[in-house]
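Intended use. Records like the one below are meant for learning the mapping from a protein sequence to its folded structure. Do not use them to infer anything beyond what is encoded.
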Amino acid sequence: MSIPEFAVRQPVLVNLVAISTVVIGALVMSVMHRESLPTMPTGWGTVTTVYAGASPEEIEQLVTIPVETAVGDVDKVDEIWSSSKEGVSYVTFKFDADVEDMTSAIMEVSNEVNRIDDLPFDAERPIVREVKVDFPTIAVSVRGEVPEVVLRQVGKDLADRIERISGVSGTWRNGIRDREFRVDVDPDRLAAYQLPLTAVTESLRLRAVNVPAGTTKGEGDARLVRGMTRVEDVEELGDVVIRPSARGGSVRVRDVAEVYDTFAPGKYSGRVNGERASPQGGASR
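Structure written out for the chain above:
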């Protein structure tokens, strides 16, 4: 007897089975644990080390690089990212795709990190954690043998493109320093024009450039720092008039100082697999 023939001859039994299936499914669904975005392992881990008071450069050399080396000694680790900021080091690593036991893998990394014996004595003990996420994310890094200004622009363009993607709530960027004009004042040239250092400072302030009070460093130079948005290039800043000249014309910033288009001291120092990079990230809604 075929199934269709049985269903025709036994309609009550067939209907009873169908109703029972629906009822049981509804009951199971009502008590089933559900998550629209469940927490799941990512295959990533982090090592966080606090070293209070240290600069990003000190963090990178004394903490981040030794931790990177230790993490890299674990065969199961596929890639390593790092970020060094004032007072703290972050090292993120990704395991090979075939790693199934994350607990054991994280323990292996922790054991390697704990074997480091040359961290600063006043640095806190590195904390190794597995990364689990409850929302979709993407992380990329921009690196290459190009000037920092190029990396900075590529990173900015990439972040802008990611933010325009439907469903992306925002992006973050690390390791990118702000643009800064530096004015190094020559004391001898300043004295030749019989100008005080404050005259240079005030002329820059009047030009609507964000400049703090000048300071003197070393025996041969005085340095002013800042200048971020209103001036577009070195030539424009060098043309700022300090005062009229006694010989006619004007004394300008370029007459008493060297002007550089550079970057502010970084709060972060990014590295990927041991190379300098600019980490980027994005989160979905």
